[in-house]
Specification:
The chain is an alpha/beta fold. The chain is built from 24 helices and 15 strands. It is elongated.
Length: 529
């Protein structure tokens, strides 16, 4: 019988009462609630932030039965004060389109509901004043200090990210509203705020100067997401079923899961974690789909990268660097896309230089890498996709069958569609970018800028029967590109390979914006060296 996997389940109570598999994170909850420190946590979407807040809410509601058999039950065994209900103010900013709904309307709805619960009359004054009065009234009526939980506080700001005036308006509303948390400190026991991005100039972070940001803290690096050990501990049955479906061993199945969905790291020494949404979907479907990426494409980020002519090849060269402050804070008024790419989950920590406190960032896994690269291509070449005649699937089929004319047609079509910009010389950047995007999407078949003992070839593509070595030139003859492959003996690295080797020189005409030349040499058994 298939077990119920908690795909998209954000309610801790529903998860625990309806038989869903639960990865026990309550030891973290125990540590958080006993510090009485106000916290902020940034994590990408669909990483379990809402479930974490729902768990905290259930704890402060005193729903002890929901925690039976979990780590926190044993940890709280000797604590006489545990499980005593507290007044909870849970702000969930999900589920609204803030380009159509005013933030004031949403806050008013929250306050009105709670004012009815605690019998607060005379709903006059600002939203902030009403919130402060609610906190004070709840504390006086219950004798328990309040708990404030804020889920996805930045959803309104991200919805409005391209509307500067509306974004500033929301910031000002938040300033007046959440500044009361400091004024009402005596009435508050615990604060936990989550979001995707930490907008540095939002007053939550300046007014609550004691707010602890645990987004890059080692002790909480695995608070959201699923570690390798948790995967093997809680999902052994699903891994076995998946392996049997693939007709491979458990270890090989785990390797593929790791390559596709693991790789997120929120501290240089922290555990790697899987994207839980993608992992659970893959285990349920017993398929390696693109689950997380397809639930929200990075349209704004993609357009921003193209507009600033960002060299996307840096994604493969591991030359994307950031400071800790850059990773934590997003001002919302900078042209630098790197902080938002990290905070939204398209990049993660790959390395860390402790001496200069510098982070190296990279794609976390194959799902994100290939999904992001595929989303970039239409920005550079316009019409792109299966059936268009210039898509990567078509190029891959031609490569697998050795159809050189077909490969040339696809590349010619791709480069004929390169979009125009106002830049004085866009083609140099664009044609190199499109080459990298196209061949990166070939995945395991391709390696761009491959190092050999005699130099660096632009691209190598391998299939079961063929090896293709490409050298690209701009405004130089294709013969010159082919001559470079031969003069530097790039083919010698494959001399013992039995597959057919093709050396291909390609030239581009930047004035006419097209593929201008294509020269090929080949040999059976790779005797061309």
């Amino acid at each position: 019988m298939l077990r119920k996997l908690p795909i998209g389940i954000q309610s801790f109570e529903k998860l625990r009462t309806r038989g869903f598999v639960y990865v026990d994170k309550t030891e973290y909850v125990y540590r958080l609630v006993h510090s009485e420190t106000p916290y902020f946590l940034s994590r990408p979407r669909r990483f379990g932030k809402s479930l974490l807040l729902s768990t905290l809410k259930a704890y402060y509601e005193g729903k002890k039965d929901l925690f039976k058999g979990l780590a926190i039950e044993k940890l709280e065994k000797e604590n006489a004060e545990a499980w005593r209900p507290a007044p909870i103010f849970y702000f969930d900013f999900n589920g609204e389109d803030y380009t159509k709904t005013d933030i004031e309307t949403v806050l008013d709805q929250f306050l009105t509901e709670w004012e009815d619960v605690y019998g607060v009359s005379g709903r006059n004054g600002t939203l902030g004043f009403r919130f402060q009065k609610l906190l004070e009234t709840a504390y006086l009526k219950t004798g328990r200090r309040c708990v404030v939980l804020v889920d996805e506080y930045d959803k309104p700001l991200l919805d409005e990210i391209e509307d500067e005036s509306q974004k500033e308006h929301t910031k000002n509303v938040f300033k007046g509203f959440f500044s009361v948390l400091k004024k009402a400190d005596d009435c508050i026991q615990f604060i936990f705020i989550t979001g995707v991005s930490k907008f540095h100039k939002v007053s939550i972070f300046s007014d609550l100067n004691q707010l602890r940001d645990i987004s890059l803290t080692k002790d909480y690096a695995a608070l959201c997401g699923i570690t390798e050990s948790e995967l093997e501990q809680y999902f052994e049955r699903e891994i076995t079923e998946f392996s049997e479906e693939l007709n491979v061993g458990n270890r090989k199945c785990l390797d593929k899961l790791r390559e596709t969905y693991d790789g997120y790291r929120f501290h240089p020494d922290g555990d790697y974690v899987y994207n839980p949404y993608s992992l659970l979907n893959a285990l349920s479907d017993r398929d390696f789909g693109s689950y997380w990426f397809e639930t929200g494409t990075p349209a704004f980020l993609v357009k921003k990268l193209r507009k600033m002519e960002f060299d996307v090849r840096r994604f493969s060269e591991r030359t994307i660097y950031a400071t800790e402050r850059t990773l934590k804070d997003y001002t919302g008024d900078t042209d630098d896309p790197i902080p938002l790419l990290y905070q939204t989950g398209y990049l993660t920590i790959a390395d860390f230089d402790r001496e200069i406190r510098e982070y190296t960032l990279d794609f976390p896994n194959a799902e994100v890498k290939y999904g992001f690269v595929e989303s970039l291509i239409p920005e550079y070449v316009g019409d792109y996709g299966s059936g268009s005649g210039n898509d990567v699937l078509t190029l891959r089929r031609y490569a697998e069958t050795g159809d050189l004319d077909g490969m040339r047609r696809v590349l010619t079509s791709l480069f004929a569609n390169i979009t125009y910009t106002v830049s004085t010389d866009p083609f140099e950047h664009y044609f190199q970018t499109v080459i990298w995007l196209t061949f990166t999407l070939l995945g395991k078949y391709a390696l761009c800028e491959m190092h050999t003992c005699s130099g660096r070839i632009d691209c190598k593509v391998e299939t079961k029967s063929f090896i293709y070595l490409f050298e690209f030139k701009r405004d130089d003859p294709a013969e010159a590109a082919l001559a470079q492959i031969n003069s530097r003996d790039y083919g010698c690295a494959f001399v013992a390979d039995s597959r057919r080797l093709y050396k291909i020189g390609v030239s581009f005409d930047s004035a006419k914006r097209r593929l201008a030349g294509w020269e090929v040499e080949s040999a059976e058994g790779n005797r061309l060296c």
